[in-house]
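Exercise 7. Given the components listed, write out the predicted structure of the assembled complex. Treat all entries as one system.
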Amino acid sequence: MMALGYAFLYLPIVSVIVYSFSGSDRATTWGGFSLQWYAALARNEQILEAAQRSLIIAAISATAAVALGTASGLALSRFGKFPGRGILSLMNSAPMVMPDVMLGLSSLLLFVGLQQLFGWPERGMTTITLAHITLTACYVTVVVRSRMTSMDASLEEAAMDLGAKPWRVFFVITLPLIAPALLAGWLLAFTLSLDDLVIASFASGPGSTTLPMLVYSKVKLGVTPEINALTTIIVVLVAIGVSVAGVLMHRRERKLARSES
Amino acid sequence: MLWLALFFCVPFLIVLKISFAQSVFGQVPPYTPLLETAENGATTLRLHAANYAALLADPLYVAAYLKSLLFAGVSTLCCLLLGYPIAYGIARAPRLWRLLLLVLVILPFWTSSLLRTYALIGLLRANGWLSQTLAGLGVLEPGQAVLHSNLAVYIGITYNYLPFMILPLAATLIRLDFTLLEAAADLGAKPWQAFRRVTLPLSFPGILAGSLLVFIPAVGEFVIPDVLGGPDALTIGRVLWTEFFTNRDWPLSAAIAVAMLLLIVLPTLLFEYIENRVDKGRRVAREAQS
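Answer.
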């Protein structure tokens, strides 16, 4: 039963990877081993440009989301009861469960309203990035918050007792301790932003097509084998990224465990 | 810190507020909705309920709504049935295996859901493995595809959201005290009985969390029904998308969004919030007792 479940999870991905090496023009018939679709992908400037745009947006929004998410994660787990805590907490879970179409629409309406009032922001990469920050910061908050609550607060208190100022405590004690969570949060935010089609479609303007938007239009037109190659590359990159992060985190935990004992 | 937290919170508040405001106030013919209509310098609030009336009057929207609920409900059930054994297996696995199995569940989640949906197309089309297997079993006629049918949407949503079900389930099952099961067995319970009377009730929080995580986004899902479903797989997410991008009717799509929020998201969020409160209250009470 379990094997069946895992097969269900991986069968589609594996079949795409297999067919990405197919020499046939059709996406689902096998035509001998070939790298032609990778070559075609490397020549396709439209895709490359969109991929570059997506990567930039993802990197910026992930970084900003980590900064904001850390702040609110810290506030939610360390400041005890403060006015608006319940609202902040609710606010945080809202974008995670809310359907994408709603988030996309509401952020677009905000941007249009802002543009009418202040003439900023121009719809395009900026608005996509802003919308993505809103979405991904919530996920980072959850990651940071769970790390903080499972962490012993006495280290921070000790530093405080020894006369360290709050900022110093944060940078010298808290930040290194939650670093693995920050890394995980960054990666999560990065992939979420890279993946998002719906919100980006709403928030984008002319000339700011992201990779998922391009893939979507291609998929709607019919299956193109190039997308097989693209999927394979992304899956491999993600697998590498996740394993590197996993190994790093594992090592850190071990080191911490050793230094504590 | 707190300041920053609020700073991040406010834009979202505005977004929420505007998603309400626009649809209630605005109904200006061109597709730029205005918050307030200015006439000779005087600002007046114009309340237009026409969008909401249209939502109720046109059976298309109600049907799309019900269809979304059906898709999401059935898929959530599929996720639960498929995910429970996996989560159970993960929870009972030895420590190192458990980690590996968990990573294997999360890994597909890290890749794009659009690309995973696309990956399904290959399996579901007429000459794909699944369609051919089903044709071989006599369920489908030869040459017929699963793609562009309701079944394809169920498969798509289940496939995409399965990790969201497995993770909270596994988390609760790992924490579950398995000596309780041994105790049940010692007291003469058969495995099935023990599962039904002990494991299942104790894993209920995980079931609930997983179901919410799958159900709510699935109701608003746009990509999966659009790519995998047929033209009749008209979900509320798809309707919103068409109203917005094809018909350019911004106020109406905003009204759809608000209706969606009021009907599913808000109740569940409130429910979760209240439950957290109750939980906290119980904990406080317990601490006070001891």
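Discussion: The first strand of chain B starts at residue 37 and ends at 39. Confidence is low (pLDDT under 50) at residues 19-47 of chain B.
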